[in-house]
Amino acid sequence: MALILLCSKRLATFWDTEKDQAMLHQNSVFHGLLKHVPWHRFDRLVEDHGADARVRRLSTKSQFVALLYGQLSGAASLREIVTGLSSHAVRLYHVGAEPVRRSTFSDANAQRPVAVFTELLAVMMKQAHRGLRRKLAETAYLIDATSMRLNQRSADWAQFSAGVCGAKVHVIYDADADRPIYAAVTAANVNDITMAQHMPIEPGATYIFDLGYYDYAWWAELDAVGCRIVTRFKSNTPLDVMEELAVTEGGNILSDRIGFLPARQAKSRRNPMQDAVREVRVATDTGKVLRILSNDLDASAQEITDLYRRRWAIELFKQILKITRFVGTSENAVRIQIAIALIAFLLLRLAQAAQKTIQSPIVFARLVRTNLMHRRSIDYLLHPSPHIIQDQRQTSLALC
């Protein structure tokens, strides 16, 4: 009998080693973003709406992942989405999705229940908002709408004027959380104030908006429930001044006055906004003079001016939300794609909040787009992921 002694200081391992360094498996940036999706709620919505009923080829989850990929990567067509996903088929496995076919994908966008995506968006907005613990007096909401151009194939539901079609997204945007808390989609010919009158209002909060929401009756409703409003006067709206407040000389605040709006509207209708309001005249850097209106008679003129300036935060939101091109023309397809764009925005904000390296939302969104299908951590979008030092004693086995 021969006794064979096996002595080995190093055995083959699953590590890819080089100079005593090893790199663990790393999922893609896209995979890291999708971890913020509440998949259990998504699956329940798919079941509740029967979205996968009699579906043989493309699941609603694969459709959802494909549309998210298109929005985050800036793809401009169905073909570009399909081709891009096909080139990364192996990495789709880790997110539970699969490559899509263009015709099947197009049919799904036109026919799948839009409620799956809009209700998922509502869930995610509510969860993000619930995580904020602020005093009501510190809550500032921006109300705005953004228009999106559509082609003539959408004329049956989104005709705006001769030869022009479009959709409009109406949002309430939380300026402190830097994310939307409410969104609705209409044809572009629906007035902003019409949708605002149906928006959920939080009593006691501050609402900041521009001239598209110039409606005394709506202002009176907000004022009646204790909301602070900050907006602009129209150039032809007079103020019946009852008090002049002092302002600092040489500053950008030119005047601060308290007074009343016109008692009568067109056709001698009574103005429902009967309470006194504030007019703060401010000179901008370009020399333009703004007449800021508020129903807050106690705050400083500078505070009211700063609140109005926060309205520009929504312009940053519009830049990141940008849809390169609609991949469908039906109302169903357009509504789904807008919901996906808003979900993508939320995922970017949640992912950015989870890391501390990149402070600019625009820079973060661009880096995600560039590295979307790369295998790297979201924490290291600017720099290579650190190598993991593997103790060589753990890969050695002494049998003698």
Keywords:
400 residues, alpha+beta, Transposase Inhibitor Protein From Tn5, Chain A, domain 1, 2 domains, ten-stranded mixed beta sheet, three-stranded antiparallel beta sheet, 14 helices, disordered N terminus
Describe the structure.
The chain has 400 residues and is α+β, with helices and mostly antiparallel strands. It has two domains: 17-117 and 339-389, no CATH class; 118-318, Transposase Inhibitor Protein From Tn5, Chain A, domain 1, CATH 3.90.350. The chain has 14 helices and 13 strands. The strands form two sheets. Strands 3, 4, 5, 6, 7, 8, 9, 10, 11 and 12 form a ten-stranded mixed β-sheet that branches. A three-stranded antiparallel β-sheet has the order 1-2-13, with no helix packed on it. β4 (159-161) and β5 form a beta hairpin. α6 (102-111) packs across α13 (331-353). The longest helix has 23 residues, at 331-353. The radius of gyration is 27 Å and the shape is globular. The relative contact order is 0.16.
